[in-house]
Amino acid sequence: MNNQRQQGAAYEEAALRFLQAGGLWITEHNYRCHFGEIDIIGTEEEEHPVFGRQKVIVFVEVKYRKDERMGGALAAVGSAKQKTICKVADYYRMQHHLSEFDPMRFDVVAIDGDRIKWIKDAFPYQRGR
Fold first, then answer.
1. What pLDDT, on a 0 to 100 scale, did the predictor assign at position 26?
2. For residues 61 and 81, is the Cβ–Cβ distance under 8 A?
3. Alpha-carbon dihedral of residues 74, 58, 94, 90, nearest 10 degrees?
């Protein structure tokens, strides 16, 4: 494994621990299919104003940047990356027999230097085309 991959794996591991400490139940790590990859998939209980407490499927992209110059880690999850994550999420839901009505969310764990931020609902679902 090259140095950059080792560093990426270390940041993903830190993100996993951070998310677990925050209450996310991890179900997949580095989920891959022919459309691409999602770093972390988990579930979390969430309060819905109409339906009450419900389980939400959470798809998480982890990004690291040395600092926040050029927008930082969050800015690195652009439109193309979001569309890819949504396509992979669609495939995951199909593969696991989940309905399009099952609640889901797209989060980003942004690591800028030694600061970790968990941005819940970082971007909306975009239907694949």
1. 97
2. yes
3. -20
Distances (CA, A) of 73 to 34, 56, 84, 112, 118: 25, 24, 17, 6, 11
Q: Is 70 left (phi over 0), alpha (psi -120 to 50) or beta?
A: left
Q: Where are the domains of the chain?
A: 3-119
Do 60 and 41 meet the contact criterion of CB atoms below 8 Å apart?
yes
Torsion of CA 80, 96, 25, 20, to 10 degrees: -40
* β-pair type (25-33, 36-48): antiparallel
Domain 3-119 has CATH 3.40.1350.10: yes
Question: pLDDT per residue over 46-70, tens digit each?
Answer: 887 887 888 999 999 999 877 666 6
Task: Provide the CA 49 distance to its chain's centre, in angstroms.
Answer: 24
Chain centre to alpha carbon of residue 113: 19
pTM score: 0.89
